[in-house]
Structure formats: structure tokens, C-alpha cells
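Input (structure):
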């Protein structure tokens, strides 16, 4: 079953709780958190405390996408705060195996993220050690960017690498996914679809989540 993961990066933080509840009611499968430190990416967002507050009220798994330097230093705090899935970038994690083992040892699902400019071959070894891979379809740092079309070819190629090397792992895609292209991305091999502005930019977040979830589900029958 393919999953829909709203990214709260584009939410209105004044009414964050209500907006997440609308995603839950609309049928979202997980909530995606874009953690940025102003160093690895040119933007700053939030830390574990936000996840901790949401965990108390949100029944869905929390997915922490860490775009920070020295992620291993903060991973225990994120898992303690309630992250069920934690992903780190292949570009800034020199001891990737150790970091993935740290995440798994704390009881969370471990993922590796890859930027649009990084060759997929950089993932080859990691595929044996992760629970999921996150393919970026925009350069990380901001919501509301345009989907990089080349990502579809990369997605198909990564899907076949996964089938060949470790078919049990999930493939998540993040950036520029909207109503117009979500079916195409799902059909190209994504298991988890992250959507930020395509959900939180809508007038009715509940209805938009429901609509995108239906599109994701329908893509499985195509
Ligand atoms: C970008 C983030 C994405 C982003 C997605 O650094 O990783 O999760 O919030 O937002 P949209 O769907 O607006 O591209
Ligand atoms: Zn993300």
C-alpha cells in the first residue's frame, strides 16, 4: 500500500495542530518533518521539541528528514521525541553505516536521503543497511519548489536497484509533488509520497489530503 506523507514545512504554524488533524482525517499515512539547521541547507526550521508536542496528539508515525550537520549528535533526541522514521543525507554522513545502526538501535526505521545532484551509485552499499531510501526531487531547503523532471528517470533506476539488491526497503520521494504529478511519481516506483505545499497551500487541507490519497491509491491499480 502506497503512503501519503504531508510535510508540515508549508503549514501555518499558528494553527499547526488543526492542520495536522485535518491531514489525519483526510487519510494521511505519516507526517513528514523537515529539520534544517542553516548549515547543511540554507534554511532553519525546528528541532525535536516540536515532534514531542505533536507526538502526544497525533496517531500517525512521525518521519524526521534531517538536513543538518552532524546528524548523529541529535538522532537520540529525535527518537526520544517520537520520531518513528529518521533519515540522514548520504552527502553529509561520513560514517553512514554507524549512523544507520544508531537509528535502528534506538528502535526507529533508518533511511538514507539522496540529493538531485548525487549519483545513485553513492547509495549502493547503503541499500543493504536501510529500511527506506528518500529520493529528493528538489534541492533541499525550501518548500514550494518545482519538481525536477529528471527525478522520474532516477526514481525508475533506483526502484530497479532496490528490486535487485534489497527488495524489502521502501522508496520515498520528496519535493515538488502535487495533484498534477503524484500519480506519475507513484507509478514510477515511489512507495511514500511527501507533499508539502500541495497540501498545506490548499484552502481545505482535509479535502486536499483525501484527494491526493485517493490518487495515490488509484495509481496502484494502473
Ligand atoms: C525540502 C523538503 C521537502 C519539502 C516538500 O527540503 O525536504 O519535504 O517540504 O515541499 P513541497 O511539496 O512544497 O515541495
Ligand atoms: Zn523532506
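Output (sequence):
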Amino acid at each position: 500500500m502506497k503512503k501519503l506523507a504531508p510535510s508540515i514545512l508549508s503549514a501555518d504554524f499558528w494553527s499547526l495542530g488543526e492542520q495536522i488533524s485535518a491531514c489525519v482525517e483526510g487519510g494521511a499515512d505519516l507526517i513528514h518533518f523537515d529539520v534544517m539547521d542553516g548549515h547543511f541547507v540554507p534554511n532553519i526550521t525546528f528541532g525535536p521539541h516540536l515532534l514531542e508536542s505533536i507526538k502526544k496528539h497525533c496517531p500517525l508515525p512521525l518521519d524526521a528528514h534531517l538536513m543538518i550537520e552532524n546528524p548523529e549528535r541529535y538522532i537520540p533526541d529525535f527518537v526520544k521525541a517520537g520520531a518513528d522514521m529518521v533519515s540522514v543525507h548520504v552527502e553529509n554522513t561520513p560514517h553512514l553505516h554507524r549512523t544507520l545502526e544508531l537509528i535502528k538501535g534506538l528502535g526507529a526505521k533508518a533511511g538514507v536521503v539522496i540529493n538531485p545532484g548525487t549519483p545513485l551509485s553513492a547509495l549502493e552499499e547503503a541499500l543493504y543497511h536501510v529500511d527506506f531510501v528518500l529520493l529528493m526531487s528538489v534541492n533541499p531547503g525550501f518548500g514550494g519548489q518545482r519538481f525536477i523532471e529528471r527525478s522520474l528517470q532516477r526514481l525508475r533506476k533506483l526502484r530497479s536497484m532496490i528490486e535487485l539488491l534489497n527488495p524489502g526497503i521502501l522508496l520515498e520521494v520528496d519535493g515538488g509533488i502535487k495533484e498534477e504529478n503524484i500519480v506519475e511519481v507513484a507509478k514510477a516506483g515511489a512507495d511514500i509520497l511527501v507533499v508539502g505545499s500541495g497540501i498545506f497551500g490548499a484552502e481545505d487541507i482535509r479535502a486536499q489530503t483525501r484527494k491526493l490519497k485517493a490518487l495515490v491509491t488509484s495509481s496502484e491499480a494502473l
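Notes: The chain has eight helices and eight strands. Residues 7, 9-10, 32, 34, 65, 138, 140-141, 143-145, 174-177, 194-198 surround D-xylitol-5-phosphate (ligand 1) (CB under 6 Å).
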